[in-house]
Amino acid sequence: MPPSTPETGFLEVALSPRAYGALAYQIAGLPLGIATFTWVATGLSLSFGLSFIGVGLILGMAYLLASRAMAVGQGRLAAYISAEEGPAALPLPTAAGFWARLGALLKDPASWTAQVYLLLRMPLGILGFTLLITLLSLSLSALFLGLFPWYHLESAGNGLVHLQSRHGSMTCDLGMDALVQAFIRHPGPARLTAAAVGFLGFLATLHISLGLTRLEAALARLLLRGRNSKKKGRPVMNSDEQ
Q1: Residue range of the domain that includes 136
Q2: Is 237 among the domain residues?
Q3: Smallest Cα–Cα separation from 77: which of 203, 205, 214, 209?
Q4: What is the pTM for the complete model shown?
Q5: 187-226 pLDDT, tens per residue?
Q6: What is the rounded distance in angstroms from the CA atom of residue 49 to the CA atom of residue 112?
Q7: Helices H, strands E: what count in the chain?
Q8: Torsion-angle region of residue 229: left (phi > 0), alpha (psi -120 to 50) or beta?
C-alpha cells in the first residue's frame, strides 16, 4: 500500500515526479494494451483449441495463473504511480491434485475478472495514448510558439499560417484567420498568450494523466478481488487502540 500523499495542486503538478510517471505510463499504455490483448487472445485460443489432446489443459492452467499475476502486477503499478491503494494478491484456490486445482481455478471469479481487466487495458491504453499525445502536442506547440520567436509568421489566407525560419518553413491550418491576423499584428501579446495557454495546457495534461492512472488503479481494485476479499474499507483505530 503506497503512503498517503497530499493532493497535488494545479501548479504543483509540474514538480511532481508521479505526474510525469503517470504521463509515461499512459503513453506506454497503447503497446501494453496491445500486448495484454494479444496475450489473452492467444492464451484462450491455445488453451481451448488444444484441450482435446490434454496439452491445452496444462497450458490453460499455466495461462490462468500467469494472467492473475499479470493483472495484479499491472494494477499495482498503476496504483504505485498514482499513490493509490492497489489490488491485493489473489489467493490461489487450495485443492489437491491437478484436476481439482484446475477446477478450482475455473470456478474462481478472480480468474475471469483478471481476463476482463487485461482486455480493458487495450481500450484504456488507446484512450490514454490518443488523448495525452494530442494534448501534449498542442500544449507544447503553443508553448514553443510563444517562447521561441525564431520564426517569421505570415498569413497565407483562409486560416493558413506560414512559418519561415533559417532552417525551413511550414504551413499550418489553424482554421481561424482572425487568430492568425491577431498574431501577426500584435506579436508580443499573442506570443505571451500562446505561451500561457501552452503552459496551462501542459499542466492540464499532467492532471489528466494522473486521473486516468487513478482510474485504472480503482478499476484494478474493483475487478481483482479474491473470494475471501472484504469489501469494507480500512479499519479505523480508536484512541484506545492507538
Answers
A1: 12-223
A2: no
A3: 214
A4: 0.73
A5: 677 778 878 888 999 999 999 999 999 999 999 888 887 5
A6: 18
A7: 7, 3
A8: beta
Tens digits of per-residue pLDDT, 104-140? 788 888 888 888 999 999 999 999 999 999 999 888 8
The rounded distance, in Å, linking the Cα atoms of 25 and 21 is 6
In a domain, 229, yes or no: no
How many CB atoms within 10 Å of residue 53? 8
Q: Which conformational region is residue 111 in: left (phi greater than 0), alpha (psi within -120 to 50 degrees), or beta?
A: alpha
Locate cell 491576423: which residue? 181
Q: Is 4 part of any domain?
A: no
User: Is residue 6 situated within a structural domain?
Assistant: no
DSSP structure class, residue 12: G
What is the number of domains present in the chain? Answer: 1
Locate 98 and state its grid cell: 491437478
**CA 204/CA 163 separation, integer angstroms:** 27
Query: CA 92 from chain center: how many Å?
Result: 28
Q: Which three cell numbers stand for residue 22?
A: 503517470
- Which residues touch 166 (CB under 8 Å, ≥6 apart)? 150
- Which H or E element spans position 163? strand 160-165
Q: How far apart are CA 115 and CA 109, in angstroms?
A: 10
72 CB contacts (<8 Å, ≥6 apart)?
87, 89, 90, 114, 220, 224
Helix spans in 158-186 (H): 177-185
